[in-house]
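Troubleshooting log. The previous structure file for this entry was overwritten by mistake, so regenerating from the original sequence record. Sequence copied from the archived sheet and checked twice against the printout by T.R.
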Amino acid sequence: MKIRYSPEAVTDLQRVVDFVEKKNPYAARRIAIDIQEGVERLKRFPEIGLSVMSSPDPSLIRDLFIKDYTIRYLITEEVIYILRIWHDKENERNL
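Regenerated output below.
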């Protein structure tokens, strides 16, 4: 199973890290590592996240929760697409 990040997810991850880095560079690195390690686990356990019931196909679009962050992803036969990443205090509709 391969992992691919959407351009939006790459921008999201950079936004999250940049925001935290201003106050605590160590915490920013830790957040980036935690998110990347969590995403890597999807290779072995692609259905570990919770189904997004409001999506067109809840069995394929899921949310993985890592600490205070949500990683929304799409499962296909060969690739897991990381769609978006946001902090729990952000409103996903405003991303």
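Residues 2-86 form a domain with the YaeB-like fold fold (CATH 3.30.2310.20). Archived copy saved in two places this time.
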